[in-house]
Amino acid sequence: QLQLQESGPGVVKPSETLSLTCTVSGDSVATSSYYWGWVRQPPEKGLEWIGSGGYSGNPYYNLSLKSRVSISIDTSKNQFSLTVTSVTAADTAVYYCARVPIMSTINYFDYWGRGTLVTVSS
Amino acid sequence: SYELTQPPSVSVSPGQTARITCSGDVLPRKYAYWYHQRSGQAPVLVISEDDKRHPGIPERFSGSSSGTMATLIISGAQVEDEGDYYCYSTDSSGNPMFGGGTKLTVL
Questions:
Q1: Is the C or the N end of chain A the one with fewer CB within 10 Å?
Q2: Each residue of A11-42: pLDDT tens digit?
Q3: Which B-chain residues 18-77 have CB contacts (< 8 A) with chain A?
Q4: Which pLDDT belongs to residue B1?
Q5: CB proximity list for B87: less than 8 A, separation 6 or greater
Q6: Residue A92: pLDDT above 70?
Q7: B42–A114 C-beta distance less than 8 A
Q8: Is any Cβ of chain B less than 8 angstroms from the Cβ of A108?
Q9: Cβ contact (<8 Å) for B101 and A111?
C-alpha cells in the first residue's frame, strides 16, 4: 500500500530556506512509471501546484516559484525533497507531497501525503 | 483571477444530484481532473481525464467535459461528500493549475 509522509521544520524564519522531505513506502522513487511532486495550500485558501520531478526526468516547476524552488530525489533513502529559498510570510502553507503518473498528458497527482504545516515567522 | 473558474459554493439536500462546474479556455484541449478535500484532510483524486473514476471512488461520482466546461456530478449526494472540490488542468501556457475550489454542502 502506497504511503507518503512529509517531514520538516514547522517554523522557518523569513529570508531563510525551507526544506521538506517526503518518505515513500509501498513504491520506489526510482520507478520509471511515476514522478513525485509537491502542492501547497495557504491557510483558508486553495491549492497551488509547486512542481514535480522524477528519477528519469528533469524537474518541472510552477513558473511563479521557479527561481526559488527545487525538487530532488534520493533513491538510497526512497525519499524526495523540496527546497524553497528566500521565504516570506506568503510561503506559509500546508505542504503536500504526492505521486505523479508519468503516462499522463499533464502532471496530475494520484496519491497524496497527509501534509505538513510550515509557518514562516521570526 | 483563476484561469479555471469554479462556483464558490454548491448546496444540495441528501439524495439530490450535485453538479460542480469548472470553466476554462484550455478544457477543449486538456483533460480535467477533480479532487475532493474534506476539512483538515489531504485532497483525494476523484476523477481523472474528464470522466475516469479513480479506484475506490463510489459510483455516484462521475465526470464529463464539453467545450470549455468540465462538470463533476454526484448522483445522490451524501453527507460524507461534503467538503471542497477542486478541478485541475492547465493554464493557457500549459502549466498545471487548480481551480479556485467549490465548497459543497449537503444538508
A1: N
A2: 999 999 999 999 999 999 998 899 999 999 99
A3: 30-31, 33, 35, 37, 41-45, 48-49, 54
A4: 59
A5: B4, B6, B20, B22, B24, B32, B33, B34, B70, B72, B98, B99
A6: yes
A7: yes
A8: yes
A9: no
Are A108 and B86 inside 8 Å of each other by CB? no
Whether A16 has its CB under 8 Å from any CB of chain B: the answer is no
Q: Can you give the three-state secondary structure of A35-81, one letter per residue?
A: EEEEEEECCCCCCEEEEEEECCEEEEECCCCCCCEEEEEECCCCEEE
Q: Taking a C-beta distance cutoff of 8 angstroms, is the pair A11, A121 a contact?
A: yes
Supply B24's cell numbers.
476554462
Residue B2: what pLDDT? 66
Q: Given a cut of 70, is residue A44 above it in pLDDT?
A: yes
d(CA A92, CA B93): 26
What type of residue sits at position B13?
Answer: S
User: Is B89 within 8 Å of chain A by CB?
Assistant: yes
Percent of chain B whose predicted confidence (pLDDT) is above 70: 98
* pLDDT tens digits, one per residue of B30-74: 999 999 999 999 999 999 999 999 999 999 999 999 999 999 999
Cα–Cα distances in Å, from A26 out to A3, A21, A55, B9?
A: 6, 16, 17, 36
Q: Test A106 with B35 for CB contact under 8 angstroms.
A: no
pLDDT band, very low/low/confident/very high, at A84 (cuts 50, 70, 90): very high
β-strand pairing of A11-12 with A116-120: parallel
